[in-house]
Design brief:
Layout lengths: L1 E5 L1 H8 L9 E5 L3 H6 L3 E2 L6 E3 L6 E4 L2 E4 L7 E4 L6 H6 L9 E3 L5 E3 L4 H7 L1 E2 L11 H12 L6 E2 L1 H12 L8 H12 L5 H9 L3 H4 L26 H9 L4 H11 L3 H12 L1 H5 L6 H10 L6 H13 L5 H11 L11 H20 L1
Parallel strand pairs: 2-5, 10-11
Antiparallel strand pairs: 1-2, 1-8, 3-4, 4-5, 6-7, 8-9
Helix pairs in contact: 5-7, 5-8, 7-10, 10-12, 10-15, 11-12, 12-15, 14-17
Length: 364
């Protein structure tokens, strides 16, 4: 039995960006499930044997081969016999930069049968073999790696781009599950340069398939490079999600979130951001009635965290929200005890509108 460090940990070490938080994945050659269990590892994989180390809890997977038997990324059969070699295991991986193994027990010797180090040096995202086209998730992963490594100047290899486009044209990407699409999208939005994720998907025609409810005219790869998403002063993916969708129709956002099974936090905030984007840009010119409705519909005084996130979205879009913040503070300071108790609900409404009108008179 031999154990090798593989995948992202090796890649990130070679790029000089690995740290104590870098996840480590290991591949085990020449072993069996019974051998692993005898050594105290705990099996967690159902489709193929993956084991957790009894001490570190890191994942150890038996070297495996796979054969496509159905649609999507679940349509595979696996061979995890002890006869599977390290090179055979690496050959099934998506990109050459992820198909490098390291023997940490033998002077950190590298095994790089597909020239991943050369592609790292050249900044290329290149598929290992044509088996890449059997798993539609890999289209999303290449787009995500493009976003993550954009600061390093990485590009998708021409041959890989052509293969991704073929996967879209053949309908293979239609087998993607909503959960996996959202997972890759959310990860991409955590990076400093998520524009590359959307650009790569647009270039291979996957964008309009994966995000079908959205209007494609404003997201053409040549007309809009999505670069407004880069360098935003936040690392919160739900805020970037709203910035991405702020020019879409609310109905389209609802359909997209339903399609991708987005968390409610994402859907509610994105819909509010799009609904009131133009309104907030001209906030000081609005009528008192419309401003009252804005605070009511956003539930600003009760859903304080969500409203704060809404203002953060607009600030990321360079909208001045000082007037909104000031007025919200005034509305939140109403002394309810001083109001007429005979119809307290109407008294609160009247007081809010009075405060809004008075505030507008000083600014207009």
């Amino acid at each position: 039995m031999k154990i090798y460090l593989v995948g992202g940990a090796v890649r990130d070490h070679l790029l000089g960006i690995a740290n104590e938080h870098t996840e480590k994945d290991w591949v085990v050659v020449g072993s069996s499930p019974d051998d692993m269990l005898d050594l105290g590892y705990r099996q967690v994989g159902k489709e193929f044997p993956v084991f957790l180390h009894p001490g570190t809890q890191e994942e150890y997977a038996l070297a495996r081969l796979e054969r496509k038997v159905g649609k999507g990324y679940k349509g595979f059969e696996f061979d995890t016999s002890s006869q599977v070699t390290l090179e055979q295991d690496l050959s099934r991986r998506d990109l050459t930069i992820n198909a490098i193994a390291q023997d940490v027990r033998n002077n950190n010797e590298l095994f790089d049968p597909f020239n991943g180090q050369e592609d790292l040096n050249q900044g290329l995202l290149r598929h290992v073999s044509d088996a890449f086209s059997e798993d539609p998730v890999r289209v999303l992963r290449v787009a995500r790696f493009s976003a993550r490594f954009k600061p390093f100047g990485f590009k998708v290899a021409h041959t890989t781009h052509r293969l991704m486009k073929q996967m879209v044209d053949s309908g293979e990407v239609d087998a993607l599950t909503p959960e996996r699409v959202f997972k890759e999208l959310e990860k991409s939005l955590t990076y400093a340069t998520p524009s590359a994720f959307f650009k790569v998907l647009s270039a291979c025609n996957a964008y309009e398939r994966v995000f079908a409810p959205l209007s494609t005219h404003q997201h053409q790869s040549h007309d809009n490079k999505f670069e407004f998403l880069d360098g935003l002063n936040t690392d919160q993916p739900h805020l970037k999600f709203c910035v991405w969708l702020v020019n879409e129709k609310v109905d389209a956002i609802s359909q997209l979130c339903k399609r991708l099974k987005c968390p409610k936090q994402y859907e509610q905030l994105a819909k509010l951001s799009a609904q009131f984007y133009e309104f907030v840009q001209s906030f000081d010119d609005q009528t008192a009635e419309l401003i009252y409705e804005f605070f009511a519909k956003t539930d600003a005084l009760r859903r304080k965290d969500r409203f704060e996130d809404l203002l953060k979205v607009y600030q990321l879009l360079s909208v001045n929200v000082d007037g909104v913040i000031k007025l919200k503070g005034l509305l939140g300071a109403i002394d309810i005890a001083s109001l007429d108790k005979t119809n307290i609900a109407q008294a609160i409404i009247d007081e809010k509108k009075s405060i809004i009108s008075a505030s507008l008179n000083t600014t207009q």
